[in-house]
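Need the bound structure for manganese (II) ion, inputs here:
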Amino acid sequence: MPYHDMREFLARLEQVGQLKKVKASVDKDWEISTVMRKCIFDNPKESRPALLFEKIKGYSSTVAVGALLTRTKYAIALETDEKDLVTPWLNALRNPMPPKLVSSGPCKENVLKGRDARLSLFPIPTWTPGKDGGPYISAGCVVTKDPDTGARNVGTYRFMVRSDYECGVLITPAQHIGIHYTKHERRGAPMEVAVAIGPDPSVCLAAVAGVPYGVDEYGVAGGLRGQPLELVKCETVDLEVPAAAEIVIEGEIPPHERVEEGPFGEFTGFMGPKGQRPAFKVKAITYRNNPIYHGYISQMPPSESSNIRGIAMEAAAHQCMVDNGVPGVKNIHVTEAGGAWFHYIVAIEASYPGHARQVIQVLQGAKPNYCKFVTVVDSDVDIFDPFQVEWAVTTRVQPDRDIFVVSDCPGFPLDPSQHPDRRFYSSKMGIDATKGFDFEYPEISLPDKSYFEKAEKRWPEYGI
Ligand code: MN
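Answer from helper R.:
Posting the output first, comments after.
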């Protein structure tokens, strides 16, 4: 049975030892992110806990962070095996389940409108203390509509709290919300916006997945959870939000108005610059009794945002290989150290000369903002183990033969290595670390499997 809401999911995480409760009273503007960050650095990858801060100085709400920090938690969110997170994703992309509109839901337990709807009622954390421009809503599922077609988009975008009634929002033109905003601006019309915080986890995962434009993320969430998502209508805007969301902020972004937004510690591991950006004006806030404020720890990888994005990107890349008829792809890993953005590693069953290069060119062509680096290895290499990948790269690559660089491709403007005057261009590199077809490689310098099996049988006798 899918989770009904974020609370059920958090309870499940606690039950299986994946969530810890912090009882001490903490400051939302430095302590939440610092304590979470220390948990990331101090614990081995899969034992990094989610945290539920029960007491926030000056607030009555609790704060949940790190609920989707690791592959283990991601698998719990999808109620699946963490060894295969791609199959449920491919199913959801191919078989989305349209959401169901219901008349009311828990998110309507409290309704505040006009001047009563104040952002400072909730403990919205500052994530990079001393460097961010303000507190940020980091895990909002942001709902907007295409004014021409009515097609809905749900995405996660950074919202900097500027006052009780206003946020600055980073919107770039190619993002789905950016396409909607450009259309609204051309008409001189405000864009209605709803920000759902703490819906059931499938919505969070769908919102960061970068599904194609026009695909309803609520439908994908339904596909992920195996049951249609329940939605309710907003109070002051013509939009729908998950009925069981913890907090919903309604409002609009007027055309042609810009306010200062940023800086913000970004997923690249560097500060993203401040700038003049669109302004979100709050009109209403609805929330559950005893709301749990849900945030992502983003910033320097490893992070929650890189974990959730990477897994969805891997699924999208698999789909891209299928769509383009590229055979033999065994596994794809979008590395977390590369911000789950810049470096794709692909394992293939190489079947013909040039196969690895085809994989690189298709990926870099189809995913032009991502894939600054694509490394292709043979399927004997575990692409989730950086040690094995480096072994393959160092022993199966002749740099002048197997590495190629292409200049002036589309880039991603938050990549700090780009010259500030050329933020939208990037060069790209492909590494063919497969053995290829030109000559035979020597045998691997390990005993054959049969020796290991014999030793395994006698294992108790060794007394090790
Ligand atoms: Mn979208």
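Comments: The pocket of manganese (II) ion is lined by residues 153, 155, 176, 211, 217 (CB under 6 Å). The two ends are 43 Å apart (CA to CA).
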